[in-house]
């Protein structure tokens, strides 16, 4: 019970597909005695991530869809934060997962600007997941750097195949962008020495971005919904072809799929041109498949005949 004490808040940021949801699932498992609430902001009008989170009561999970907290849904975000604290007196720690294209400064700012939120919450800091496998591709460098610059803690993820020399180089690169943050290395969101309580906020100056209206104004999403079971091999053929043709434009693809002659839903996870398609934990209960594609998609036609 938090009663008169404030709810701790940690923001989890990081570029598309860096491992934010994977990391949150690992926290929920590890700190299973803690009462968490989760605010999930997804880019796109279908929430895939909330379906992949295991360990927070559905009523304590808040989805902010159809926009991004950092630019289009600020008012809704602040209302959700107030309502959450007032309705769920048992919550001890709030985790906020930003979209992979968010400017985290805008997500953090209300905790320092809004007096009401300051009475309810104690801001503990920002963790940035950094994708070691895809950090060096050319996608949206400004945005990736800003997410690192704002963080109190950088968790360099996907390091299972990295040698110590590569880790040292990576550390130096992060230090150049953010000399203040703590840095640890993780595999599937798990770092040996990580302690949530030790992530602490270090005051920083968050200048408003002077260039384009938003750091991600060029990035958009397309959602594809299919109401009949799909043929798996035809789908895989289409997927490999599409990811190959549009490897510089599609930053992220994810979905929950219903294939012909399969009992369980399949989960699609694609980051930076490669993908995984694996059987999920849920039995198919409806014949719908939903796919979200994120990237520079303005001139792209992803129509299919499944
Ligand atoms: N090889 C490898 N893959 C990982 C690791 N951590 C996560 N992944 C995979 O990376 C993909 C994306 O992971 P998510 O946790 O969904 O990433 P995210 O940051 O929440 O993605 P968005 O919300 O779309 O930005 C999934 O296929 C994960 O299984 C890791 O340490 N190593």
Automatic annotation (TrEMBL):
Family, as annotated: Belongs to the SIMIBI class G3E GTPase family. ZNG1 subfamily.
Protein role: Zinc chaperone that directly transfers zinc cofactor to target proteins, thereby activating them. Zinc is transferred from the CXCC motif in the GTPase domain to the zinc binding site in target proteins in a process requiring GTP hydrolysis.
Record's keyword annotation contains Nucleotide-binding: yes
InterPro entries: CobW-likC_sf, CobW-like_C, CobW/HypB/UreG_nucleotide-bd, P-loop_NTPase, Zinc-reg_GTPase_activator
Reactions accelerated catalytically: GTP + H2O = GDP + phosphate + H(+)
UniProt source species: Maribellus comscasis
Gene3D superfamilies registered for this protein in UniProt: CobW-like, C-terminal domain, P-loop containing nucleotide triphosphate hydrolases
GO MF term set: hydrolase activity; nucleotide binding
Superkingdom: Bacteria
UniProt name for this protein: GTP-binding protein
């Amino acid at each position: 019970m938090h009663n008169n004490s404030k709810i701790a808040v940690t923001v989890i940021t990081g570029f598309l597909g860096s491992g934010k949801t994977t990391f949150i699932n690992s926290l929920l498992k590890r700190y299973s005695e803690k009462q968490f609430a989760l605010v999930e902001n997804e880019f796109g009008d279908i929430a895939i991530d909330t379906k992949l989170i295991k360990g927070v009561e559905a009523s304590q999970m808040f989805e902010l869809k159809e926009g991004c907290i950092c630019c289009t849904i600020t008012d809704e975000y602040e209302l959700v934060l107030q309502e959450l604290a007032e309705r769920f007196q048992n919550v001890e720690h709030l985790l906020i997962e930003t979209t992979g294209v968010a400017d985290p400064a805008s997500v953090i700012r209300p905790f320092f600007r809004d007096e009401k939120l300051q009475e309810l919450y104690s801001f503990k800091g920002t963790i940035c997941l950094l994708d070691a496998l895809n950090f060096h591709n050319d996608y949206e460098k400004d945005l990736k750097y800003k997410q690192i610059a704002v963080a109190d803690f950088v968790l360099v993820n996907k390091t299972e195949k990295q040698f110590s020399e590569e880790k040292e180089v990576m550390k130096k690169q992060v230090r150049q962008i953010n000399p203040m943050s703590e840095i640890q290395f993780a595999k599937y969101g798990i770092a040996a020495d990580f302690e949530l309580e030790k992530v602490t906020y270090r005051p920083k100056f968050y200048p408003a971005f002077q260039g384009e209206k938003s750091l991600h104004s060029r990035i958009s999403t397309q959602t594809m919904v299919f109401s009949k079971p799909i043929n798996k091999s035809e789908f895989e053929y289409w997927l490999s072809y599409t990811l190959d043709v549009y490897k510089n434009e599609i930053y992220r693809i994810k979905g929950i799929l219903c294939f012909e002659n399969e009992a369980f839903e399949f989960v699609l996870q694609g980051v930076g041109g490669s993908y995984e398609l694996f059987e999920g934990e849920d039995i198919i209960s409806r014949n719908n498949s939903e796919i979200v594609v994120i990237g520079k998609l303005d001139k792209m036609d992803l129509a299919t005949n499944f």
